[in-house]
């Protein structure tokens, strides 16, 4: 019995097992480093998900995929029953799990949605780990650097290209004051904005009317800066409370 236990224990340290572990170790290390590459941009910009999160996601994805490629070495190559795996099902499970993780970093407040880029890049990080796990190392390295470049440089490209800035505005008027939509639209146009179709939300509580809408700039040059809009809203007749913020996602 002692000899049987000893031989079973030593089967985990056979030359074939150590070789498989070495390959898995290299895959995990490479996936973690590629995850760091993608996560650095998020960490640099102060996002909640940084290098650690991306490294863990990428490494865990690679681990789940790579171990499914070595079923013959499970349990020291002494599995009581044959292990038959379908790696595609493992990848499906990873994608589903990352979907829940991505949903946790997406936040919505009024017309402002944040966390979409972080969620998308986490998904890309898991894809990098999967590619490492199946052995597409060159493609995984390319995807990691393309993902990092996309998050770093595309924002600068967006700032350079013509665009129409959007701001989310909440206006609460004094009790009994009734605003007019046509007058509000004319005021917006005079400041380089137009009220986006389908975004106007009107509510009333205790006789106080509240308007919520998104104003889209006619162009970046014509649109009044948000700081100047804030000053004008504060001086608006009938205004009791207002909130203004960039409508971003």
Features:
five-stranded antiparallel β-sheet, 8 helices, Alpha-Beta Plaits, alpha+beta
Strand content: 15-25%
Any idea what the shape is? elongated
Number of domains: 2
Give the mean pLDDT: 84
Query: What is the radius of gyration?
Result: 27 Å
The total of beta strands comes to 7
Order of helices and strands: HHHHEEHHEHEEEHE
Helical content stands at: 55-70%
Biggest sheet record = 5 strands, antiparallel
Structural class designation: alpha+beta
Helical stretch count? 8
Outline the fold blueprint:
Layout (H helix, E strand, L loop, with lengths): L1 H9 L4 H30 L6 H17 L19 H19 L1 E3 L2 E3 L1 H19 L2 H24 L5 E8 L7 H10 L2 E3 L5 E5 L2 E10 L8 H9 L4 E8 L3
Antiparallel strand pairs: 1-2, 3-6, 3-7, 4-6, 5-6
Helix pairs in contact: 2-3, 2-5, 2-6, 3-4, 3-5, 4-5, 5-6
Describe the structure.
- It contains 8 helices and 7 strands; from the N terminus they run H-H-H-H-E-E-H-H-E-H-E-E-E-H-E.
- The mean pLDDT is 84.
- The protein starts with a helix and ends with a strand.
- The protein has helices at residues 2-10, 15-44, 51-67, 87-105, 116-134, 137-160, 181-190, 226-234; strands spanning 107-109, 112-114, 166-173, 193-195, 201-205, 208-217, 239-246.
- Strand 5 and strand 6 form a beta hairpin.
- Helix 2 packs antiparallel against helix 5.
- The strands form 2 sheets. Strands 3, 4, 5, 6 and 7 form a 5-stranded antiparallel β-sheet that branches.
- It has 2 domains: 2-160, no CATH class; 166-246, Alpha-Beta Plaits, CATH 3.30.70.60.
């Amino acid at each position: 019995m002692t000899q049987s236990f000893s031989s079973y224990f030593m089967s985990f340290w056979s030359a074939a097992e150590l070789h498989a572990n070495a390959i898995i170790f290299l895959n995990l290390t490479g996936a973690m480093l590629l995850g760091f590459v993608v996560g650095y941009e998020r960490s640099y910009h102060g996002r909640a998900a940084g290098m650690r999160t991306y490294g863990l996601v990428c490494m865990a994805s690679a681990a789940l995929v790579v171990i499914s490629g070595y079923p013959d070495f499970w349990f020291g190559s002494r599995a009581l029953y044959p292990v038959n795996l379908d790696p595609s099902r493992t990848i499906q499970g990873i994608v589903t799990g990352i979907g829940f993780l991505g949903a946790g970093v997406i936040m919505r407040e009024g017309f402002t949605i944040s966390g979409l880029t972080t969620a998308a890049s986490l998904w890309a990080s898991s894809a990098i780990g999967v590619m490492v796990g199946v052995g597409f190392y060159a493609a995984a390295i390319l995807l990691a650097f393309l993902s990092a470049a996309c998050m770093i440089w595309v924002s600068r490209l967006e700032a350079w290209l013509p665009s129409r800035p959007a701001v989310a505005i909440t206006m609460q008027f004094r009790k009994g004051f009734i605003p007019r939509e046509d007058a509000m639209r004319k005021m917006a146009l005079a400041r380089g904005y137009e009220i986006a179709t389908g975004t106007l939300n009107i509510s009333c509580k205790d006789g106080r009317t509240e308007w919520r809408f998104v104003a889209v700039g006619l162009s970046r040059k014509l649109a009044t800066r948000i700081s100047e809009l804030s000053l004008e809203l504060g001086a608006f007749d009938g205004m009791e409370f207002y909130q203004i913020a960039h409508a971003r996602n």
